Amino acid sequence: MEKRSKIKALLGGDKVGTEVTVMGWVRTFRNNQFIALNDGSTIKTLQVVVDFENTDDDLLKRITTGSAIKAIGKLVESQGRGQTVELQASTVEIFGDSDPEKYPLQPKKHSLEFLREIAHLRFRTNTFGAIFRIRHSAAYAIHKFYNDKGFYYMHSPIITGSDAEGAGEMFQVTAMDMANPHKDEDGNINYKEDFFGKHTNLTVSGQLEAELAALALSEVYTFGPTFRAENSNTSRHLAEFWMIEPEVAFADIHDNMDLAEEMLKYVVAYVMDHNPDDIEFLEQRLINEEKSKPQNERSPMALIEKLQFCLDNDFERLTYTRAIDILKNSKPNKKGKFQFPIEDWGADLQSEHERYLVEKHFKKPVILIDYPKEIKSFYMRLNDDQKTVAAMDVLFPGIGEIIGGSQREERLDVLENRMEEMNIPAEEMQWFLDTRRFGSCPHAGFGLGFERLILFLTGMSNIRDVIPFPRYPGSAEF
């Protein structure tokens, strides 16, 4: 196939006056003359001008919304508004027809709910083209950030025998016929007869395995799919999502906070630099969508302002204890405006509390540290007060918690006591405890839910719209 020029390069390049070949999908075709062509390289379309008087009528009828075409012609300066160049086509070839009576993406506004039902086609819309170009840029920026800092990318296992969070909400992996499974003498399922010889699940986190690597390679990160069998049908939860989890040896909670802030600012800046057209489109989309909403339900900031807000401000750092005092004495709490009132120290903060701290009280991103040990995981380092652990959550406007992490408990005896307190079976975790038996050291890490980051970067409100093929209760389409 002959070489094509990408529309993004033509719109920003210096090929005026030359003959070029473009290939893409028709967005609209007006007056039997003007094709708006998009090839996915940019949110913008290239106007292709057809010499309809000298073009076969049957060919013109086949140029419909959604059809894939090739056009060859001269790139010229455009006389029309909204475009700098256009293609005066000498030949047009149809690669693939699109029946306008059946193609569901006609040039009109479609609801996000409708587009979720045809997720195999929603990439072709402006909104989802922008989202997934931004998703690519963010993923690349994360890899580049860690590579440039000397971290090693580690692939943690997807099938695992451990539950890193102690949550129990895991998808089971088995090769057994569950209608007729192997059973032991007591009538229980005998997983020793299963494929792996033990009970296994899809991973909820790569953190524990990343710790093993960090305690040899010093600085590592994982970036892969994780799974939660949480029967939650909300706009914030997925059954399959992607996580970035760095682990750093010879680091404490303060180093951890520094790394998280530096990484988030790097990714936000990278996307703003490399996807300005996509961000501007999504900002305008959000403004138009929220016009019909009451003022108190609208986003507190426009998208670009919100992204810049995170670049311009040092993240506020404070303890959970101080945050509880602020929330207890806040107007929304005193006036009963919080759905979950804050009454006592020890409360597990909800998104409404986190957003209040960020958007109303401090008016900047916030990092909370030193949470009660009862509401955090077994591997987080116990503080000297014996009541709190060296945990941290990074809170962002519009999202709430975007990162959760901690300094890890490196002391074997303390870790074993915590595991016993939280009913974590030590016999299954000897491999993890070995890292504390042999050459243990202070270390820290965190987890960033990639889709939550994409929600923030795109201004979208439903997490199902920032992953190509969302998995949630009752849905595993495509």
Overall 3D shape: globular
How far do the termini sit from each other?
Answer: 29 Å
Radius of gyration: 27 Å
Category by helix and strand content: alpha+beta
User: Can you summarize the main beta sheet?
Assistant: 8 strands, mixed
Secondary structure tally: strands: 16
The level of helicity is 25-40%
Strand order of the largest sheet: 6-10-11-16-15-14-13-12
Mean pLDDT: 93
Unreliable stretches (pLDDT < 50, length at least 5) are: none
Tally of DSSP helical segments: 14
**Topology order in helix (H) and strand (E) letters:** HEEEHEEHHEEEEHEEHHHEHHHEEEHHEH
Strand content: 15-25%
How would the blueprint of this fold be written?
Layout: H1 7-12, E1 19-30, E2 34-38, E3 46-49, H2 57-62, E4 68-77, E5 85-96, H3 112-117, H4 126-148, E6 152-153, E7 159-160, E8 172-173, E9 200-202, H5 207-217, E10 219-227, E11 240-249, H6 253-274, H7 276-290, H8 303-312, E12 316-319, H9 320-328, H10 331-334, H11 351-362, E13 366-372, E14 388-396, E15 400-407, H12 412-421, H13 430-437, E16 443-449, H14 450-458
Parallel strand pairs: 3-5, 6-10, 12-13
Antiparallel strand pairs: 1-2, 1-4, 2-3, 4-5, 7-9, 8-9, 10-11, 11-16, 13-14, 14-15, 15-16
Helix pairs in contact: 4-6, 4-7, 4-14, 6-8
